[in-house]
Amino acid sequence: MVPAAAVLVLGYSRRFMSDDGLIYTRVVRQILAGNGPIFNVTERAEASTSTVWPWMVALGSWVSGVSPERVAVFGGLVLTVVGLAVALAVTCRLYAGEEARPLLVPAGVVVLIAVPPVWDFATSGMETGLGTCWLGVCWWLLVRAGDGLSGREAAVVAVAFGLGPMIRPEFALISVFFLLALVVLTWSSVKRALLLLLAAGALPLAYEVFRAGYYGVLVPLPALAKEGMSPYWSRGLRYVGDFGGPYWLWWPLVGVALLLAVLWLRWRRLGREIVVVTPVIAGLVMLLYVVAVGGDFMHARMLLPPLMTVLLPVLVVPLTRATVVLASATVVWALIGLTPLRPPFAGHPGVQHVRYVDWAVTKTPNPVTAEQWIRGFPRFPEQVEAALATGEPTVLYGSTNNFLKTRARPDVGSRLVVHGGWLGTVGAVVPLDQTIADEWSLAYPLGAHFALERRLLFPGHEKPVSWVWVLADYADPAAPPPEGADPAHVAAARRALGCGELRELQESVRAPMSPARFWRNLTGSLRRTTLRIPTDPFAAERRFCGGG
Known about the structure:
The chain is mainly α. It has 28 helices and 6 strands. The protein has helices at residues 2-13, 19-32, 52-64, 68-93, 108-114, 116-120, 128-146, 151-162, 164-167, 172-185, 190-214, 221-225, 233-244, 250-269, 273-292, 304-311, 321-337, 354-362, 370-374, 379-389, 423-429, 445-448, 467-474, 487-497, 500-510, 515-523, 525-530, 537-545; strands at 104-106, 316-318, 394-399, 402-407, 416-420, 435-438. The protein has a 4-stranded mixed sheet, with helices on both faces. Strands 1-2 form a two-stranded antiparallel ribbon. Strand 5 (416-420), helix 21 and strand 6 form a beta-alpha-beta unit.
């Protein structure tokens, strides 16, 4: 498979571990240490957006003895290549029922190869490679379903389709459409259809019960921090333009639409119309969701899965007069896109090309280890080591390279609490048995429940946690007033943390796990998931403690 080999070479040439990938690897290291799928040992927080990915990396690291960072980077590359190779083979199979097998030419696969973000996120340490592999396998299973399945085979396919939300929450949209297609393609009775849906939902539902009882909420913590159901259409449209514009992507996508129209009658003649329409609709709906929630701060990342999903039926196409013209135009576009003729990349405000940022921070073109990231923050490890060396409970807060400090409460559960951004790198420096209060709330239950009071520049980074709340949560009230924070605000926040629903929220993640605690977490998970905290300490005190 030449296209898959091309992605292998290009992905390897752009290999890197992102700071967000290091968030996963801290969770992996906690799993390998026997602490479970958490970020801090002092509280139960699901900092991983993907449920499956950290466990896969943990298994790979445990079996191979290779560091989680390298397993995540190179495992992601392998999964990307496998997923693309499977998808290509399956699209070729679409035309296997014809009497005279046509000559096939590349079309949609050229789009994937020519778009640089595909090379970047083939690695990155995040779950993108796993998502690509899952899409390729699901495409194979869907085409198999079009050929007919036994009852047992259909149940296995349903289980595979149902894994979508455990890959990434928004993949549930793809799961829904693929499951509907499976039900239609294998229809025999209402009972069988219900059994297929039950098979598909068994694992996600079981995990959801575990999530609600263990973490106390119904969604991963990053989904709360990013307000994944809060619409922001205008920013989402800018996000799409940030992807489509630099690569002139609109032109090949018009060609893809024409290819779908040209091949429609051929697919109908083969009885494949449900099979080929399903990924197109699923991809478009997923695109609509990404636009609705405002996209992401990483250039193109959230748009790669819907792009691949829409392209699945036309990765390759049969050679005809019409298709050769459209496929040739796509190849010409790709050749232009891979040369200096393409206009320089110029991102929109609020969207980062993570490769450029990572180069700037790590000073290396291919950062694949935590150590390379840590070198980008030279003073940070020194300050952490100095704070631990004192033996005193300490809170570090402020800038990652220039912390302020105060005494921590003796009952925090760790000798050190660090409040900072660059969560992945901070997590690589701070020992597993010490606590991190994430500045952007992705791994900090208190911050994730803050109200989204105004939109900030970067999606997913709109709930910054002020020093006031961290000091109220962790600092010793008997210590001298901490530098840079208003004592009255800290006192109000501390009082709010001791009242009503806010106190119960803290207990849901910090109280020792027991059957009774699991049940209280489970039964209160919906209420906790919808709980939002005013960022103003005095407003929070009034709401949770009463008094007007």
